[in-house]
Amino acid sequence: MSTVVKKASSIKTVNPFNNETVKEFDVMSNEQVDQIIGRADQAFKSWKKTSFEKRAQVLHKVASILRTKKEELGKLATLEMGKLLKESIYEVELCANIFDYYADNGAKFLADHPLDTAHGKAFLAYEPIGVLLSVQPWNFPFYQITRSAAPNIMAGNTMVLKHASNVPQCAQIMEDIFLEAGAPKGVYTNLFIPGRDVERLVADPRIAAVSLTGSEPAGASIASAAGSKVKKSTLELGGSDPFIIMEDADLDDAAKTTVYGRMWNAGQVCVSPKRVILPESKKAEFLDKVKAIFGTLKVGDPLEADTDVAPLSSEKAAEDVAAQVAKAAEQGANVVIGGHRIDRAGAFLEPTLITDITPKMDAYFEEIFGPVYMLHTYKNVDEAIEIANATEFGLGGSVFGKDTDKAVEIARQIDTGMVYINHVTGIAPELPFGGTKNSGYGREQSPAGIYEFVNAKLIRVTDSKALY
Ligand code: NAP
Questions:
Q1: I need a surface site. Which of 69, 171, 224, 450 has the fewest CB within 10 A?
Q2: Could you say which residues form the signal peptide (predicted)?
Q3: What DSSP character marks residue 292?
């Protein structure tokens, strides 16, 4: 039964399993937002002077609270955006690992870096730059905020978060967790504002920089707002990852890896294997295997342990993906399985398998953010690489086969920020995440993630006579 707690606004929890509104939040007034940014700015003045030890203590505590509350938080993510509970709980554990990673390694990454120079001594001092605005999407409601918060709070920046409007409770609880972990007020704060208000915030002189994960239009708008004020931005945008299956690949393994990889989070993953690229000679055999796995997929309640495919994040998301599939069919693609909404309450779409996609169709180039498996075939490796690189995106990708030296050679020719051999594009705290082309710029996670929003300041010490 739905319980409306506050008056209608655009920020609300709608459970995609049944499309019932669970809770609504008021959008913050400009005055409230102004106060929050002011507090974050004040907090920066002292947070930047705290020791790495103190910051690490807070981050470790955040990690420990996340682990203790993983069931509760997992249920919240599932309630708000529909993903399988087991995936939500895994996500919370991953976040705890990312917080621990930066708590354990941040001081080492940001230690003064000596430089070779002809005279005297020189080094880089990594200094925090101020209040960061972090704009994040709903598809991994805890992970997306973690990978921007953990390195930056460790580096001494403070952060205001504008999360996606459909995951307000996940957004708010993260602020609560920071406070419970001992972070001073203002170090990490949630903002309840709609996406259209973000540009105004980017212009605020107290905001030092902005980081956005989301769609290309949102990224372009934020990057241009930041550029016009000479502020740094990082963008993690969409992707349409190729997954190249080599001639020598085990087809059973390849079928399992690609189907489960594609159905993960109901296909709403920026680095999902969205375009599987297979030797033409293997098509019939491989399709039989893929179809057999599709036949076993259980679509349903994301809270149930044996569900394989969850609803999409919202009614609109399900409608949009169904429309993309319908358009592909209209343009001549072969929808082998699925393609339709499921006749039940909730944002459900049938797991879908499409073949025979040509460059004349939109589906050949665009990102489909749902449980849609697209199979392409190739005659030789050059053609496989050409198909892999045929989109404007450049996020992740995979090469799957036994000859891993050959796979690495192919990986080098794929125009993306990440290529995994024998695995779908994955996530680990110590490995960088990010793309090229229209998938954005900048990196999160790994040592690279902590250098995005610090001032690498040169300090050079010489004898004054060196100038003459
Ligand atoms: P979206 O519409 O761009 O939303 C993402 C965030 O940006 C939300 O907080 C949204 O707020 C805000 N936003 C929307 N329009 C904005 C604007 N004009 N100016 C400033 N902020 C704005 O993205 P989505 O469709 O929900 O998310 C899916 C996309 O994100 C996919 O393309 C996916 O591939 C990509 N993604 C990329 C990565 C990566 O790491 N590269 C990871 C996850 C997802 P509201 O909710 O209030 O509109």
A1: 224
A2: none
A3: H
